[in-house]
Design a protein that fits this description.
Helix content: 40-55%
Number of strands: 10
CATH architecture: Alpha-Beta Barrel
Order of helices and strands: EHEHEHEHHEHEHEHEEEHH
CATH topology: TIM Barrel
Largest sheet: 8 strands, parallel
Structural class: alpha/beta
Number of domains: 1
Shape: globular
Distance between the termini: 19 Å
Radius of gyration: 17 Å
């Protein structure tokens, strides 16, 4: 069976997790990078990583949607205290997609300040970063570069190709999701990303549409779908694509 890794899963948001992990393992998913989004999420992700038999690698961070002053300070302390357990810092970044942020400089600055704090932690502990960059692709790249971040993956990249080229030329990675089945922007981004710079993921339990127009809540097992879509776009046999994605993940996250 082909060995798979889901490099971006919100396991703390999944009900009946034991069943989900069992199905994923049976589908060939041997490793899962479990990302976090706030203080409670970080705690739960760490607990899951220690308590489950599956190989779950925790990443700690505050998502730009989850900013509150009290919880943010508490979470920053948690991340610092538990960085030794982390495979990465994430999911962190910026989100300017909604108009209430897009047109409000102060809200952007709040996100940027938090992002920079978390980039500083990543640099201090020599950890890669998992980046949410929707509508803020250029600022995310600029801040990573300005803060001397060596390893970053731009999760579910669907932004402009000119910015993508800057990201790739700097040595950063991009990840593909099941949205490849319907998103022209995501398809174009992955088409323009060399295999050496690509990871695969699900962002589970996010809801995706399938090719028939119906939908499903993702599980880590659906990284097999992402692999199929990547192998089709890259015109590469599935087994060869899987081997390359696993090799890339081990290199990026520095694990065996």
């Amino acid at each position: 069976m082909i060995e798979l890794i889901d490099t971006h899963a919100h396991l703390d948001q999944i009900d009946n997790l034991d069943d989900v992990l069992k199905r994923s393992f049976e589908a060939g998913v041997k490793t899962i990078v479990a990302v976090s989004s706030d203080y409670n999420s970080c705690n739960k992700t760490l607990e899951i990583s220690k308590s489950k038999q599956a190989k779950i690698l925790p990443a700690f961070g505050i998502h730009p949607w989850e900013i509150t002053a009290e919880a943010t300070d508490k979470c920053i302390e948690f991340i610092k205290e538990n960085a030794k357990y982390a495979i990465a810092i994430g999911e962190i970044g910026l989100d300017y997609w909604y108009k209430e942020v897009k047109k409000d400089k102060s809200k952007k600055e709040i996100q940027q300040d938090l992002f920079k704090k978390q980039l500083s932690i990543a640099k201090q502990y020599n950890l890669p970063v998992i980046i949410h960059s929707r509508g803020a692709w250029q600022d995310c790249f600029n801040l990573c570069k300005e803060n001397s971040i060596k390893n970053a993956v731009f999760h579910w990249y669907s932004g402009p190709i000119d910015i993508l080229k800057e990201i790739l030329n700097f040595g950063y990675f991009v990840s593909a999701t099941p949205a490849l089945s319907y998103s022209p922007q995501h398809q174009e981004a992955i088409r323009n990303t060399p295999l050496d710079s690509l990871l695969i993921e699900t962002d589970c339990p996010v809801f995706y549409k399938n090719q028939s127009g119906e939908g499903f809540n993702a599980e880590p097992k659906h990284v097999a779908l992402t692999l199929d879509l990547v192998s089709n776009i890259k015109n590469l046999p599935k087994a060869a694509a899987a081997e390359k994605m696993l090799k890339n993940a081990k290199k990026f996250f520095n694990y065996n």
